[in-house]
Specification:
five-stranded mixed β-sheet; binds FE2/S2 (inorganic) cluster; Glutaredoxin
Length: 185
């Protein structure tokens, strides 16, 4: 049955940060991609993986930091069906299926989530409380296997921790950083 909630180790997504570096997820994403040619799609993909969709405020901030006009960003997100402009659920649960997480059983975690929420990957619960998605490496493989909910990471999970994560979400009520004041300049 229930085991101690490993998610007590939950942490924010932490990419290796040099001393005077990024203060938030958008800055992290912009810094990661802005010097790479043709990287706007990858940056937007990164953003959506972390928060589940492309919020307008985040798109504006990302555009400013990458030197890309908002109109260009909207051209991209409206052209590709993959991108979502609205939150698909209050809590976007992203199960990492990157190599490190996969080796440590994240596919079983995902299956457990599907069972608990009674939705398939890529779907939202009828009440829009949860949206379940699989994502590729979130850049903190040392914490595998992990699940990110609105940018908050539940780390070093056991393969049968799905229910615990969902219970934990109701306690933590993680809000997408993109919805927080601090991400809006
Ligand atoms: S493989 Fe999951 S964080 Fe890298």
């Amino acid at each position: 049955m229930s085991t101690p909630i490993d998610v007590a180790t939950s942490v924010k997504i932490v990419a290796p940060k040099p001393a005077a570096e990024p203060k938030d997820e958008i800055t992290l994403i912009a810094n990661k991609w802005k010097m790479k040619r043709g990287s706007l799609i990858m940056a937007l993909h990164d953003l959506q993986s972390r928060v589940g969709y492309v919020p307008r405020e985040s798109a504006m901030k990302l555009g400013r930091q990458m030197g890309v006009p908002l109109a260009r960003i909207y051209e991209v997100v409206t052209f590709y069906n993959y991108f979502k402009l609205e939150a698909p659920g209050k809590y976007v649960i992203s199960v990492c299926l990157g190599t490190a997480c996969h080796i440590k059983g994240s596919a079983e975690l995902l299956a457990g989530m599907e069972k608990e929420l009674q939705v398939h990957e890529g779907q939202s619960t009828p009440d829009k409380e949860y949206h379940l998605q699989a994502v590729r490496c979130l850049g903190c493989c040392g914490l595998a296997p992990l699940v990110s909910v609105n940018g908050k990471v539940y780390a070093k999970l056991k393969t049968d921790d799905s229910r615990h994560v969902i219970e934990r979400i109701q306690i933590d009520k993680p809000m997408a950083e993109a919805d927080q004041e601090e991400l809006v300049d």
